Structures are given as C-alpha cells and as structure tokens.
C-alpha cells in the first residue's frame, strides 16, 4: 500500500540491537542466546546489593563501529539511570545513555538514494526475559510469570532515526539496510526472530502540506521486516480514519498483532511513568579519543551501499540483481568475474538469480569461464544454470561439467532436422501455429519449444528454436 | 505556603511503590515539607553558570576487557529467591508490558 | 592493646590469635546484651579463622599486618554465605553469594571477623536508632546514642568487643559515631577504598573506612583496605594509599586552617568549640601555622546532601522488590507485591528518604532540587580548593554536641539531619577527613575533632591526627 489520498505518513524508527560481544555490558557473564535459564548470571547482572558495573570495552568499540558506519559523530558520553519497576529488570532501573549519547547525528542512505537521518545511537543494557504461564501465554490472562535473567545486562545499541520515513516501503528498506550494515560490521547477528534486532515504529499522520507533526503512536512487537510494513500501513490508516471521523490521536504505545493484522493499545493499568533519569554514579564518563575513533574508522569494512555502488560501477549497469548480490555477500565474486572479462549482465543474472546460498567451491575464474561459454553460445541459459549448480558442489571446470552432462552445442543443421521432425509429427498444431494470431502463436511456441527441448535433452537453445519456427511459418 | 502537598507525596509514594496510610501521608508530608523548607537557601542560589558535579573524583574511560568470568552457581542464586519454578524466578501476574 | 600491638604479638608467636579472640568474645558476652552493637556474632567461624592464623604462624608463615586482629564489620558489607541485613527487614535472611572487596582484603591481611554490626537501616541515620533490630547504645553511657549510622562497629570498638571496625561514611556515618564514642574514625578520599560489596546508600558519597582506637591502627587498616579495585569503576587507579611511613612526621611547618562556617554552625555547643580550640592550640604548639579558613558553600552542605543522597538512594533501593531475594509479601499481581513488600520491609526513615529522593528527581523538580544540589557540590569543591591554597589541612569539630539521649531526635528528622553539618562537606567534595578523640564535654562524654584534607591528602591528614592524639596522651 502506498499512501492515503490527501495524507502523509511520518515514521521514526527506534531499533534495538544486541551486540555480538562475548560478555555482557557490565559483567563477565556470557552473552549467549538459548542457554539454560539463569546460568549466565552473577551479582552484577542480577543487581544484587553491593554489586557494581564495569563497562565492556568491546561493547563500546562495537557501538562506535556502528555509529561511524552510520556517519555519526562520536562524542564524549555519560550513562544515566532510567528508573521504573519491572520484574525482568534486576535493579529496577535501566542503565542507558540519556542526554549525552556516544553517537550523534548520522544518516542511513537507502538503496534508492533516500536519506534517513539518524538522531543518535546509544548504548544501554537489555532486560531479562519473562514467560507468562497460563492464559495462553498472554500477559494479561497469565496466572503467574517466570523470569530468566540470562539476557539481563546484554549490551544493546538503540538507533533512533529522525522522522524522515514516509512509507512502509521505506521503513522496510531502512530496516533491511540497517541489518545489512550490522552484519557487514559484525556488530550484531541482527536476528529479528531471536530478538537480537527489535524494531519499534513511531507513526503519525498529517494532512498533505502540513508542517507540524501529528501525535504519534509507538508501535511495538514487530517481529519481522514484513510485519513492520504491515503495521505501519495499518496504523496510518487507523489514525487517518480517526482524524477523518473528527477524533483525536492519543500518544500511546500500541502492540502489533500478527494474527489479526492490527495494532492494539495494551495499557491495562493507569500508570504514570516518570523515569527520573539522573547520571549513573557507579559509572564514569566515556570519552573515546581521536586515536580510538580513527582506529575504528580504519577497520570499517566496505558497507552495503558502497559495495552496491562498486558492483554497479564495475558492471556498468545497476540492475535489481546488484542489491540482491550484495545482500547475499556475493558481490566480490561477481565483481571479480566481471573484472576477468565476463559479460557483466550475464554475471549479474547468474549470480543474482541462481546463487541463493553458499558459494561452495565456486570461484571467480570458474564463473567467468562459465559465463563465457554461455555468451559464446556453447551453453544455453538452462544448461548454464545446471553447470553452475554443479560447480558449487564440485568446483570443477565448467567445460568438463558440461561435457559430462552431455551439453554440447548443436549445430544449426542438426537443430533444423529435429524441428522438422517435430513439425511432421504434429501437423494440426503446426497449421494452427501458421494460421493463428500472435496470441495463439505465443501459446504454441511454448508447446513446440518444449518438445524440441525434450527431444534434445535440453541442449537446444530456446531462442534459436523460436526463431526457426517463425522462419518456417513464414 | 507548603512546598509539598499530600497529593505530591501520594504520587511520589506510588512511583516508589510504597503504600501509605492516611496518617502516614500527613506525617510524611509535614516532615518532607520541613526538609524542603530548609532547602530554600539552595533554591535561592543563582547557579546557572555552575556545572554540576556527579562524580567527586574525576575519572573517565574505565573499561574492562571482553573476557568471560565464571557466573554464580544457579542453585545458590535461586536458593535466595522467595519463589522459584523451573529454575526461574516466579512472580505473580504482571499487569502490563514494560514501558 | 591496639590492633598493631595485637598483630605484632600474634606474628611473633608471643600471643595466640585464639587467645586474643577469646578475650574479645568474653567482652561481647559481658556487654553486648546491653549495648547491642552486633546483629550477628560469628563466634565459631571466628575461632576457626583464629586457629588457622595460629597454625600459619606455627608453620613459619606471616599472616599479614592484621594477623589475629578481631574485626567488627558493619552489616551493609557483603559476606559470602553470612547474613547481611543492612539492619532492614527487607534483607532479613539474605545470604550474599560473594564477599565485599574489603572483606577479602581484611582476610588477606590476617584479620579475624567476629561479627556483623548494627546500623541505621541502609545507613540512613545519625544515631543507630533506625535499625529494624533495635538501637545500639553508647558504651560510655547506655542512655545515649552511639551516633550513626556505623554505631554498631563504633560501639564494638569503643567497648573492646572488637579491636577494629569497618564502617561506611556517606554524610559522616564513620566520623560522627567515632566522635560520640571517643574513638578514631576515618573517611578516605572518594574512590580510595573499593565500594564493591558495600550495599549502596548514595553511590557518589559512600566510602568505607576504619574505626579504631588509635590513629596508627586507622592508618594500617586504611592501607590494607585501600587501593585500586577493577570491580569498582570509581576506584582510583593511581598512587597506592601509603600513610604509615610519615605518620610520625609531626606538623612542624604545616599550615592548618580552622573552618569558620563550621565553628559557627547552627547548634554548635560551647564545650565542643572549646575542645576544638584546644586542639588548634596543640597543633600550633607542635609547630604548625594556624589560621582561620573560610569555606562559604559549607553552609549549603546539609541541603545539598539531603537532596543528592536521597535521590541516589531512591534508585539504589528500588531493587528491593520481592522478586529475587529477601522479603516478599504476597499480592495478586507483581506491582502490588512490590508495593506490599516495600511497605512492610522498609522503616520510616528509609521511606522518608526514598520519597524525598523520588521527589527531587521527578519531572518538573529535577532542576530545582537534584540539579541544583549537584551544582552546590561544584561550589563547595571550588571553595575547598581556595582554602587549600592557603592551608595543608583544615580543622573543625566533628559534631555540634556530645552524644545525645536515645529517642531525643527521632520524631524530628530535620534536627537529626543537622547533626551532620560538619561531616557532610567532605562527602560532597569527595575529600578525606577523620575524627580524632579530643577530651570530653561538660557531660564527661567524648568530643571529636575533625581533620580534613584535599583529595588524596590522607598522609598529611594522618600526620595532624597523630599529633592531636599525642597531645591527649
Ligand atoms: Mg531503549
Ligand atoms: Zn553477570
């Protein structure tokens, strides 16, 4: 869905990512997903009386790496306490960066060139995990809850965008691109389904041309990039419907329900939150010097946007396959094959469409050789795909594989005699082909090409067969 | 004029998860009002150009290496808990998601 | 016998740690029923560790500078597997799974832990009356308070139930009871002694320190427990805490300033003032140059303290929610359970400070209260800096009066708070200071004089303290 007539949707995104450190943010407990409950805990991350936090250097390094990848300025920063009671939070306050975050003022550029401003990317600690028992696992109907503190104190970076996103597609592209950056930099494994990347969307609407922002709702519980898009479309529609009915939007948190495709308000108890932020006295200021920032910059890998640009430049074209290839991390292979002289379009086509998973034993020289066979007419597209699959498993040269599979290019005479034989075997269909209109011909072309392929065990080139049929029909 | 009302104290008690009887509410309001009254001297100071001190001894960049240290024995931790089930801390129903 | 004398005798094999311990346990038997310094006496465990010390001495080993010295530990310091209560019902029965850093260091120096001592609940108070387990009494006069909040450790040392004690000092909680009980009490520079395992009251003010009968004992205990700890981010990494070698250097040539604002503090008693002036005279006689110092922002100390400390406390004490350890009072849902637990588990003074701190941090009041109080700390630090351009150490009374009767100030929190007027400025500035006994008041009860020094100025501070101690001998 794109846009509602006369209205503009405004979205800001808050993304929490768990950092891929060995240990937690403030203690040496293992930062691991899926451990036995309450085994990765100590006095610090259980918030036991008398315990004190000590900041993990790697968490700071990862946060800076992400910040720099997003073009942020790394600044002197401090930690604060955000105070509220909740059983999965062992100290009943969260240590987070509040007025002075480590990363400020960056930008994330979407593949289509649209730029989303990044307000800040700050460090904070994760909470434990509650399981609600009884009532179908829903918090409201549960008989009681069980708390596991393995996740408590796991390092997070919260990336807060400016309200620049205007459509669900852009929001999806933002989440997708951010995920690509997280993976490229090794900052997080960014698994939305395991909760190591959690996206909340602040959604508001305003009449087209309005300057001021509307009242926003914060939409949570978005467990996939797909639900992010659906939830934004739903929520924007809901807000427009209310406003058009003369009602007001309430600033609130709403939860996306994947099953009914709606957002729901979940405020069950009238609770006023007042977080009473104040500087965390147990932690001292963090002020990375220029040296450290420079080292982080120098170690940054090429990011997806730069890799797309590089591949498109070396290919001389920017097809949709380029983004797919970079997403899958196959751009280095594709670029090297093109540099080795292989036809760029064919390379992008093969790598973008026929190499979904692991590259296995495939290398750039092999790929270039395969593409040369295809563009030289020695292999048909269908054959090339089959050879490619075999190259991934065995790593053998494409010509040898083609020979084993019996893929030999047919000469024109041989092909013509096969086609003539098939025409003779199907006189009625041939008459229809010769006398029919373009639509009928189109249908019958498939029929005849299929028979030729069957007869030649796929060795015939489909395009050559079609041309021959049209030539014979006159 | 009192600096803090019984409504303020009731609000603050709620935020701090404390329940007060009516008598306590009146008593605490009076006592807090006296303490805040004593704070009038500081309230009157013009300190706009003075930076706050949150740490009396200036240190920065205190960091530890990302090295795993042994966790605490689960049995020892759970033995201290008021209620436990399936090796987890058991609590009565939680009303409402975390904010 | 001082702790240093005990340690020397035990290390040389002249006396056994066991015999030393049994003498102290006998005093506990005789007097603690009345004084109630201890929440828990660890007689069996103490005998076992005394015997272990003796065995090491017999084997030719040196158990360390506090070999066989019986120590009383304030019950807000975590001890593995030993109940640590903060004198609060909310922590009753809690067994920490770890030892505080200071506990490890004392054990490493050969000290013998005799018990956990009473305090004002969560160290919030100046009289040790705010304990869920009943008040501690002053060994010099059992109708009087011992001061607080480290009243238990202080009474234990003053009565000879332990040779040394550890307390924590957030606004005077070591120095004020030391003055009222006639012993030495020292608060180190903030960051000098690790807070790891000290149950937090106000994190930016709390420091652990020694309570002893002699200045030299305080110096040794400070050296044992002080120094960098990687488990406390606010622990000072540089310059190890060394004070003993210069302890006897005297004050000749030192410049010593008496703080005007504290001499003139509200409620300052004439006899306390008189003793303080005598102390000044003693220092001058020993060769120091003395003069009047001014620390104008000291008059705002109480106000700033009673905003900063409760604010931090309101957050530090949120974790007592009935979920993971300690008391739980059941209710239909978790929020109500939290509330029922905290309502039943905390005493009035703790509730008062939690509410005051919550208010000081709450939306709309932060700038006026907490924010302003943190700026006053800056003013105070600047004023001290100026004073220390002229003087090496500063001097003041430790408390406005001698020990007051039990029950006298409990109904009026503000009056109780004013008791800390002289001790609070050092906490707000993070500076070291200590109380040294200096004579008695008109009621015959001990008076303490406070020596203050700039950050990391402990060595000079101890020199002045030693001269004052010598002047009384
Ligand atoms: Mg957050
Ligand atoms: Zn931990």
Question: Short summary of the structure?
Answer:
The complex is a heterotrimer of chains A (474), B (99) and C (473). Chain B is mainly alpha-helical and 99 residues long.
How would you sum up this structure, described in words?
The complex is a heterotrimer of chains A (474), B (99) and C (473). Chain A has 474 residues and is an alpha+beta fold. Chain A is 40% helix and 19% strand. Chain A contains 15 helices and 15 strands. In chain A, the strands form 3 sheets. Chain A has a 9-stranded mixed sheet with strand order 3-6-7-10-1-11-12-13-14. Chain A has a 3-stranded antiparallel sheet with strand order 5-4-15, with no helix packed on it. In chain A, α3 links the parallel β12 and β13. Chain B is mainly α. Chain B is 36% helix and 8% strand. Chain B has 4 helices and 3 strands. Chain B has a two-stranded antiparallel ribbon with strand order 2-3. In chain B, a hairpin with a 2-residue loop joins β2 and β3. Chain B is flat. Chain B starts with 5 loop residues before the first helix and ends in an 8-residue tail after the last strand. With 473 residues, chain C is an alpha/beta fold. In chain C, 41% of the residues lie in helices and 13% in strands. Chain C is built from 16 helices and 11 strands. In chain C, α2 packs antiparallel against α3, α10 packs across α12 and α10 packs across α13. Chain C is globular and about 70 Å long. Classes of the chains: A alpha+beta (474), B mainly alpha (99), C alpha/beta (473). At the B-C interface, α1, α2 and α3 of B face α10, α11, α12, α13 and α14 of C. Magnesium ion (MG) binds next to loops of chain A.
Total number of helical segments of chain C? 16
Identify every distinct bound molecule in the structure, by name, code or SMILES.
Answer: magnesium ion, zinc ion
**Cα gyration radius of chain A (Å):** 29 Å
Stretches with pLDDT under 50, minimum 5 residues of chain A: none
Radius of gyration of chain C: 21 Å
Order of strands across the widest beta sheet of chain C?
Answer: 1-3-2-4-6-5-10-11-9-7-8
Structural class per helix/strand content of chain C?
alpha/beta
Strand content of chain C: 5-15%
Instruction: Report the β-strand fraction of chain A as a percent range.
Output: 15-25%
Q: What's the number of extended β-strand segments of chain A?
A: 15
| N- to C-terminal distance of chain A | 47 Å
Q: What characteristic shape of chain C results from the CA principal axes?
A: globular
**Major β-sheet annotation of chain C:** 11 strands, mixed
What's the pLDDT, averaged over the residues of chain A?
A: 92
- Multimerization status: heterotrimer
Secondary structure: helix percent of chain C: 40-55%
What is the chain-wise order of helices and strands of chain A?
EEHEEEEEEEEHEEHEEEHHHHHHHHHHHH
Distance between the termini of chain C: 15 Å
Helix count of chain A, per DSSP? 15
């Amino acid at each position: 869905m794109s846009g509602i007539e006369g209205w503009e949707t405004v979205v800001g995104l808050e993304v929490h990512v768990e950092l891929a450190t060995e240990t937690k943010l403030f203690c040496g407990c293992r930062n691991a997903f899926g451990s036995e409950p309450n085994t990765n805990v100590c006095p610090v991350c259980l918030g036991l009386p008398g315990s004190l936090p000590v900041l993990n250097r790697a968490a700071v390094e990862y946060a800076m790496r992400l910040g720099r990848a997003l073009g942020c300025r790394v600044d002197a920063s401090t930690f604060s306490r955000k105070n509220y009671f909740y059983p999965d939070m062992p100290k009943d306050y969260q240590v987070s960066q509040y007025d002075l975050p480590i990363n400020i003022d960056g930008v994330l550029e979407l593949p289509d060139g649209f730029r989303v401003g990044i307000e800040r990317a700050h460090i904070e600690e994760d909470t434990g995990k509650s399981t609600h028992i009884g009532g179908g696992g829903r918090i409201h109907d549960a008989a009681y809850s069980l708390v596991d503190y393995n996740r408590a104190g796991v390092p997070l970076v919260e990336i807060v965008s400016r309200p620049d996103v205007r459509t669900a597609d852009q929001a999806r592209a933002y989440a997708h691109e951010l995920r690509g950056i997280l993976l490229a930099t090794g900052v997080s494994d960014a698994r939305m389904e395991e909760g190591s990347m959690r996206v909340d969307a602040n959604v508001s609407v305003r009449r087209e041309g309005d300057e001021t922002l509307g009242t926003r709702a914060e939409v949570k519980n978005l467990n996939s990039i797909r639900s992010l898009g659906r939830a934004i479309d739903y929520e924007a529609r809901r807000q427009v419907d209310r406003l058009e009915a003369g009602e007001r939007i309430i600033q609130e948190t709403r939860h996306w329900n994947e099953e009914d495709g709606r957002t729901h308000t979940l405020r069950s108890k009238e609770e006023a939150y007042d977080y009473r932020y104040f500087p965390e006295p147990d932690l001292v200021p963090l002020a990375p010097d220029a040296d450290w920032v420079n080292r982080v910059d120098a170690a940054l890998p090429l990011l997806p946007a730069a890799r797309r640009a590089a591949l498109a430049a070396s290919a001389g074209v920017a097809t949709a396959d380029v983004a797919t290839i970079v997403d899958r991390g196959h751009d280095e292979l594709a670029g090297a094959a093109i540099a080795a002289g292989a036809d760029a379009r064919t390379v992008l086509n093969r790598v973008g469409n026929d190499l979904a998973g692991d590259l296995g034993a495939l290398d750039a020289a092999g790929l270039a050789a395969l593409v040369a066979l295809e563009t030289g007419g020695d292999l048909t597209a269908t054959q090339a795909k089959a050879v490619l699959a075999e190259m991934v498993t065995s790593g053998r040269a494409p010509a040898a594989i083609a020979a084993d599979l019996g893929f030999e290019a047919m000469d024109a005479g041989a092909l013509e005699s096969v086609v003539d034989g098939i025409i003779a075997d199907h006189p009625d269909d041939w008459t229809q082909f010769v006398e029919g209109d373009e639509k009928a011909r189109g249908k019958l072309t498939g029929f005849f090409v299929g028979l030729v392929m069957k007869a030649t065990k796929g060795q015939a080139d489909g395009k050559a067969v079609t041309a021959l049929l049209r030539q014979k029909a006159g | 004029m009192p600096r803090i009302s019984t409504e303020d104290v009731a609000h603050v008690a709620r935020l701090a998860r404390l329940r007060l009887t009516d008598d306590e509410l009146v008593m605490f309001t009076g006592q807090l009002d006296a303490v805040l009254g004593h704070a009038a001297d500081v309230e009157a100071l013009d300190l706009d150009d003075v930076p706050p001190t949150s740490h009396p001894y200036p240190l920065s960049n205190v960091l530890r290496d990302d090295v795993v240290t042994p966790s605490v024995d689960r049995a020892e931790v759970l033995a201290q808990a008021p209620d436990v089930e399936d090796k987890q801390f058991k609590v009565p129903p939680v009303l409402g998601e975390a904010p | 016998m001082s702790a240093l004398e005990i340690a020397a005798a035990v290390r040389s094999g002249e006396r056994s740690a066991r015999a030393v311990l049994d003498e102290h346990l006998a005093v506990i038997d005789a007097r603690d029923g009345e004084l109630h310094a201890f929440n828990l006496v660890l007689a069996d465990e103490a005998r076992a560790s005394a015997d272990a010390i003796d065995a090491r001495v017999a084997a030719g080993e040196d158990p360390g500078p506090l070999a066989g010295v019986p120590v009383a530990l304030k019950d807000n310091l975590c001890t593995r597997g030993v109940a640590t209560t903060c004198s609060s019902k909310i922590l009753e029965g809690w067994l920490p799974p770890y030892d505080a850093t200071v506990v490890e260091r004392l054990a490493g120096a050969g000290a013998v832990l005799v018990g956990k001592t009473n305090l004002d609940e969560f160290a919030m108070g100046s009289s040790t009356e705010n304990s869920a387990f009943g008040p501690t009494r002053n060994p010099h006069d059992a109708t009087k308070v011992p001061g607080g909040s480290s009243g238990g450790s202080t009474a234990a040392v003053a009565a000879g139930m332990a040779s040394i004690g550890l307390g924590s000092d957030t606004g005077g909680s070591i120095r004020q009871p030391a003055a009222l009980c006639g012993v030495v009490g020292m608060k180190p520079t903030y960051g000098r002694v690790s807070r790891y395992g000290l149950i937090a009251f106000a994190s930016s003010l709390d420091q652990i320190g020694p309570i002893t009968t002699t200045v030299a004992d305080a110096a040794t205990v400070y050296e044992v427990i002080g120094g960098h700890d990687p488990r406390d981010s606010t622990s000072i990494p540089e310059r190890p805490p060394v004070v003993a070698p210069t302890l006897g250097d005297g004050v000749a040539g030192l410049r010593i300033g008496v703080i005007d604002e504290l001499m003139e503090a509200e409620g300052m008693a004439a006899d306390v003032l008189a003793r303080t002036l005598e102390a000044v005279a003693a220092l001058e006689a020993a060769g120091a140059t003395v003069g009047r110092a001014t620390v104008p922002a000291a008059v705002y100390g109480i106000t700033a303290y009673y905003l900063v400390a409760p604010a931090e406390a309101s957050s530090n004490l949120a974790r007592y929610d009935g979920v993971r350890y300690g008391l739980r009072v059941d209710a239909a849902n978790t929020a109500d359970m939290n509330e029922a637990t905290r309502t039943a588990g905390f005493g009035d003074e703790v509730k008062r400070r939690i509410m005051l701190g919550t208010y000081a941090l709450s939306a709309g009041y932060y700038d006026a209260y907490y924010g302003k109080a943190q700026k006053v700390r800056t003013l105070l630090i600047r004023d001290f800096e100026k004073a220390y351009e002229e003087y090496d150490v500063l001097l003041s009374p430790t408390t406005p009066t001698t020990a007051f009767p039990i029950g006298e100030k409990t109904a009026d929190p503000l009056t109780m708070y004013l008791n800390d007027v002289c001790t609070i400025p050092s906490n707000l500035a993070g500076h070291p200071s200590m109380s040294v006994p200096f004579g008695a008041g008109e009621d015959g009860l001990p008076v303490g004089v406070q020596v203050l020094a700039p950050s990391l100025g402990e060595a000079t501070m101890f020199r002045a303290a030693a001269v004052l101690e010598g002047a009384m001998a």
